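@channel anyone free to eyeball this complex?
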Amino acid sequence: MINVAVIGFGTVGSGTVKVLLQNSELIKERTGLDIRLKWIADLDIEKDRGVKLPEGVLTTDAYKAIDDPEVNIVVELIGGKTKAKELILRALRNGKNVVTANKALLAEDGYELFKEAYIQSRELGFEAAVAGGIPIIKVLKEGLVANNIIAAYGIINGTSNYILSKMTKDKIDFNTALAEAQVLGYAEQDPTYDIEGIDTAHKLTLMATLVYGIPLYYNEVYKEGITGITPEDITYAHELGYKIKLLAITKMIDGEIELRVHPTMIPDNYLISRVEGVFNAIYIRGDAVGDTLYYGRGAGDLPTGSAVVSDIIDIAKVCSNGKSYAVRMDNKAYKIKKIEDILAMYYFRFSALDKPGVLSKISGILGEHDISISAVIQKERRKGEAVPVIVLTHLAREKNVLEAIATIDKLPVITTKTHFIRVENQSIG
Amino acid sequence: MINVAVIGFGTVGSGTVKVLLQNSELIKERTGLDIRLKWIADLDIEKDRGVKLPEGVLTTDAYKAIDDPEVNIVVELIGGKTKAKELILRALRNGKNVVTANKALLAEDGYELFKEAYIQSRELGFEAAVAGGIPIIKVLKEGLVANNIIAAYGIINGTSNYILSKMTKDKIDFNTALAEAQVLGYAEQDPTYDIEGIDTAHKLTLMATLVYGIPLYYNEVYKEGITGITPEDITYAHELGYKIKLLAITKMIDGEIELRVHPTMIPDNYLISRVEGVFNAIYIRGDAVGDTLYYGRGAGDLPTGSAVVSDIIDIAKVCSNGKSYAVRMDNKAYKIKKIEDILAMYYFRFSALDKPGVLSKISGILGEHDISISAVIQKERRKGEAVPVIVLTHLAREKNVLEAIATIDKLPVITTKTHFIRVENQSIG
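replying in thread with the prediction:
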């Protein structure tokens, strides 16, 4: 049993608690770990966060949680610097492992914390501190551990990216886009940290330390925000074939390291140029792996909670030190859906003689099989010759599709076996 | 000291050896681990693989390596099924940890291997078996461990993606594109595994087991290759707003799991539609994290070597069980480059009165500061009013840029402080 105390029950805190409670069965199945939420500490324990809590976990006394001998992992999610630092140090000195999402604290004052963690032989996880739900810390520390990192570029502030995307799409100016972001909750009332590149610089500081093993050089990061970008800049950039993004950049050139945050023009056919709205993406070039990119939500309760809980699980594995499965394979009888039973949209390429009523015949047979049409292309018309008739459908069952095609392919006007391709446009982002 | 034996010195074997040897200092710095390449076994130990090896590591006798009591980790990279399986089982029974890139073996016959690893309490790493250099196994097993996975879609066969990309770009047919891929070494002489979706199905099988904890259901995967796709299909798909990609799809709907590999039409504004050539990408939707995407090279000696070595390091950490740093921070004095010293391309927006000779004056001053122009936009011309003059430069030093602007901003024809944006178009993929 691994006991967890969450300190701070705000957005990230409640996301963390939701993921931990709602997916506890899944986590136990996957890892064999029994992780118990023992404490949630917050000054406000009355407000409804929309999550059903076990009896007796709420407390207004953070020390009660941090000093509890049963607690293995303390999760600091109060934000800010002074108090958070005190709590983390106290937890480490109590022999607890710590997880935090506090990028400002780590970037500006992390040396003391990481040192204390090392002295105490405890873990200090911070996956949630950079790029929210994207497991970029794990990718850098473990996945690409064998690589010299040649360069890293990140869109790692959702607020700025939302504002720039909005300015680009709606051709509006910075202030209008900022106001919209504030209404939607994508920007804070005081947006300084986000729009001036400070938040981005905090995250870049942490990434650069992982990438190059350098100290936390937050004060050396060049910071320039997006307030100076005009709709004209965006238009001219577009004419020149570029997009404007707020990038965090670190690269090593001839033994010197660059650390900079500023609006950057990037060719608009690059994958990272397509990252829009509040999404984040980090492009990493390693000497062995080459070009890689990681994309996802950089903020929000559940995405950030996903990252916090992954840290909790990593640490719980170390704490429990149990026998681990290389791969978990249940004996549960899962039903694998037969291809005939799937629902999909379909593209059909019929080859038909160009005679009157062909389309009506085809669409009639499709209709009899509960297949409805969303688009048709029928272009060239050469009398007596076969022409392609292209049909795109709404969702249909594959079994019906196969039956319809079998019937259609028997029509005298159909000259070749009908070809079809499945379409996915619903759940792919 | 962790001793590694690499069995199979082909493409992936030599990539693994290169990464391990060339980045050994980096790996030691980052992890504190001393990893020694003790054996490389291959039938052909004469051929030059372009890598300088330590004395005495080559052997033609795989058993010598696998039975060596000093060896901690056996890396199986011979491919194929029968012999590879025998070697892996023997290594596990000898108490070795194993790393393999053998997706066909694992997908079709992995149960026995994973079971043996579990019985022996040994690790069986296979990061390199899916999507080459992209650390997708780690992402699924650890990074997104707290998520119910709603759906996963992968472009995980570089050969097929190269052929489809080529057919799309050059409007050529399947056979022509395949022949080109073969000439370039992107397709094998017998391309069946790649173009019929078999390789993709192997990888999907492994991903689905990680995602849903189901047995290795390779035989249940619906497989359809790309040989039926015509240039016309690609053209019609384009007219309808879609791209055609060979996708591996797994999703859970109402307790039933879909496992399918087939050409799929995807809206062309989706990020995954932009994945071209031999690149791979996996889109994962989790219930907490939402939409994420992972992109990189799915094959090749060094990218796959990067993944193999990350497995070796993960296992070596478990073997050595030493004190670990949450974050490594060297005391090395690294020089952080000042922003004035960087080299970049620049976008300038000058506000100038529309008088004759303005552009010549500006470009003259830029030239005096070693800044050469690659593009100019100067559009509207209203006499006596300020107009924007947009200039894009080649690589220049920021110090020179700042000096040039200071001089230009003093010109009487310049009405407002000049705005500039840095441009990155060289090292971002």
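from a first look: Chain A has three domains: 2-130+305-320, 136-299, 339-423.
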